[in-house]
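Could you help me review a protein record that somebody else here produced? What it holds is a sequence and that sequence's fold in token form. I need someone to confirm that the token line plausibly describes how this chain folds. Take the sequence as given and treat only the tokens as open to question. This is what I was given:
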Amino acid sequence: MHAFDRSLLGLALILIVGPFRWLLYLDPWWKKAYAKVHAFVDVRVERALEKNRSPEKETDSPKRYVLLEEMAKQTQDPYDLRMQILNVFFPAPPGTPQPLDSQMQFSNLHDTLWSGQASKQK
């Protein structure tokens, strides 16, 4: 999250300073931050593309909806997928990704709540 915040800050500064933005391209922290964010997203994009190339066998368990995997069904361009996923988180203020990340982790740990199994077990 720190790298994402730092890369957004660098992008905002580039937009603000206008003609002097070339100075910000020399910022080593910004370069490291956006490289780290792109590398993180690229790994997830590659996993989604690989999953799309070799689909799993159908099972009786409920299928989870994963935005990136659904997008990979529409386009197989890794650059396009990277930019689209970054755009999902781009408008979020710096504090928004943390609660969203916590919610995603909670839903992964307790997927019975999201699959409708909790109501069937009662």
